[in-house]
Amino acid sequence: MGLFSKRKTIFVDSDILVIGGGMAGCGATYESRYWGRDKKVVVVEKANIERSGAVAQGLYAINCYMGMQWDENQPEDHVRYARNDLMGLVREDLGYDIARHVDSTVHKFEQWGLPIMKDPETGRYLREGKWQIMIHGESYKPIVAEAARKAATEIYNRIMVTHLLMDKTRPNRVAGAVGFNVRTGDFYVFRAKAVIVAAGGASHIYKPRSVGEGMGRTWYAPWSSASAYALPIRVGAKMTQMENRIVLTRFKDGYGPVGAYFLHLKTYTENAYGEEYESKWYEHTKELVGDYVDHLPVPTCLRNHAFLEEVKAGRGPIRMVTKEAFADPHKEQVGWENFLGMTIGQAVVWASQNIDPKHTNPELTTSEPYVMGSHATCSGAWASGPEDYAPSEYQWGYNRMMTIDGLFGAGDTIGGTAHKFSSGSFTEGRIAGKAAVNYVNDLGNDQPAVSEAEYENLKQVVYQPMENYEVGRNEITAGTVSPSYMLPLHGLQRLEKIMDEYVGGIGSNYTTNEPLLTRGIELLDMLKEDIDHLGADSLHQLQRAWELQHRVLASECVTQHTMYRTETRWPGYYYRADHPKLDDTDWHCFTLSQYDRESGKWAMEKAPVYHIVD
Ligand SMILES: Cc1cc2nc3c(=O)[nH]c(=O)nc-3n(C[C@H](O)[C@H](O)[C@H](O)COP(=O)(O)OP(=O)(O)OC[C@H]3O[C@@H](n4cnc5c(N)ncnc54)[C@H](O)[C@@H]3O)c2cc1C
User: Is 377 in the pocket of ligand 1 (CB under 6 A)?
Assistant: First the structure.
C-alpha cells in the first residue's frame, strides 16, 4: 500500500451514473429523471457543471435545429447534409434519431430562459444558416446546468473520473467508475447499474499552433482531455471512425469561429493577392475524391483542402474579407458580439495586433487536429441504434449502449454522428438517459457488483504519480528533470510531438503514411512505458497526469485507425500520402477498433455503412 493510496474512500451508489456534466451529460440527467422518477441519478464532473465543457464560455448560435414547426427542414434533410459533409460515412440511424428530437430540446432551452433571437418579420427563430439559429448564449451553459441540477439526485463536482469498473462476475458489464476529488484528494468509488459517458472530446493530442505560454489557446477546450474515449477504450468498448479527426479553418491566433461571418455576415475568403482560390483547386480535388467535390454544400474537409493547397502554393495567407461587411454598422456590431459572446480571446488578439476588421481583412489559419464526435466529424464509440430505425446489424441492445453491457454514451462520446453540436449532444444525452432507465428497469435482480480487489488496486494506481514524485524528488537538487519520473507537461509535449510528426499534424501538413504511422506506434508504446512513471506534486498535477493517460490511449486509437484505413477519405483533415485517393470500393465503410488491455493489442475490423435515407 503506497503513501497516497491511504486516502479516504467514499462510496456512492446509484442507478444511473453520468460521467461529465457538459451538454450531453445534462441532457442524460434531465431525461433519466423524466423516465426514472424513482431512480438515483448521479452526475460526476471534473469541473463544475455550472460552467463546464465546450459550452462553458457561451455560444452565439445553436447549430442543430430543424425548424419542423415551420417546415423549414425535416430530419431526413439533416441526415443527407451530415452524410454529404462526411464524404458518405455516417450512422444514419443515429443521426436521424437525434434530428427527429432536437427541436423539442431547443424549445425546452427557450422555456428555461435561453434568449433565442427572432426574425422580426416572420417571428421565427433567426437563422444564421440552414441549420443554425442565433442566440444570446453567454449564459447557455448555466441555464442548461440548472435543469440538470434540478433533475439529479446528487452532483459531484471536482471529481476526475479515471477508470470504469466492471462487474465482478460478468466481464463485459459495467458496474461503476472510480476517480478522485481534485480539491480534497478523496478517492471515490461510484457503484452504478448503468453508466453514461459524456466526457467531451479531445484537444491537445496534437501539437497546437500556440505553444509556450499560449498553449492553452486552442480552438477546442483545452480541458477536453479524451476521457470520453479512453474510459470506454480501456474496458474494451469498440470505437469507430477515430481516424476522422477534425481540422478547423479559424481566425488566426484566437481560433475565433468563422460560421457567423460566412453565414450571417456573408463574408468570404481570398488569398494574399486578393484572388478567389477555391475554384482553382477543383480539377485537382476531383482527381482525389471524384464526384464528392460536386456535392453541395462542398464538404468541410474539401474547403480546408483548397485552403491548404493554396497556402502550399505560396499564395497565403488566406484572409477573410470583412471590410465590406463591417462597413454596415449593424453587421459590425454582430461581428464583434459574435466573439464577445463565445470567444472573447479573438477580440483581444485583434486588439493586441492592431486588427480592426473594418479596415483590415484578418488572416485565417487551419487548426491542429482534434478528436470529437459532435462537431463536423464523428469519432467515438460504436453504439447500438434506435429500435424502430436502426438496421439489425446496428442493434445489439439498448439505444446508445456501447458494446459493453450497461455502458451508454452521448455527445462527443458516440461515433458515426457528426453535426449534433450543442443541441444535438443534449438530445443524444436524453436518448441515452431514457435507454439507460429501461436497461436498469430490465435488470431486475441481476445487478452488477464491483470487486473490492479491482477498486483497491485502482486506488493505488490512481495516486501512484504523487508517490513517484514524493520519492523521486529527493534525487534532484534543482530544476524539474528527474531520473525517476516525468512531469505531466513533459509527457503531454512528447505526445503532441509524436502525433504531430507521425500521425498527420500541422508540422507535417496533416500528411502521414504507413512507415510514419508504424514509427508513431512504436514511439507511443515507449511513451506508454514512461507514463507509468509520471510524477505529480499536487492534486492539480495528478489530474494532469490522468488527463495525459487518457489522451495517450485515445491517440493510440487514432493512430491505429489511421493506419487501418488505407485511403484518403477526407483531404483537408488528413492525408495518407501512400494512398492519396478516396477509395469507395474498399473503404465505403466504418472502421472499428477494440483494445485488449491484457495484451495491449488492437483488433481492427470494418462495419458496413447503411444508407437508410434516400
Ligand atoms: C470551440 C467550440 C465552438 C463550438 N461552437 C458551437 C456553436 O456555435 N453552436 C453549437 O451548437 N455547438 C457548438 N459547439 C459544439 C458543442 O459545444 C459540443 O457539441 C457539445 O458541447 C458536446 O457536448 P458533450 O457533452 O459531448 O461535451 P462537453 O459539453 O464538452 O462536456 C463534457 C464534460 O465532461 C467533463 N469531463 C471530461 N472529462 C471528465 C472526467 N474524466 N471526469 C469527469 N468529468 C469529465 C468536462 O468537464 C465537461 O463538463 C462548439 C464546440 C467547440 C469546442
Answer: no
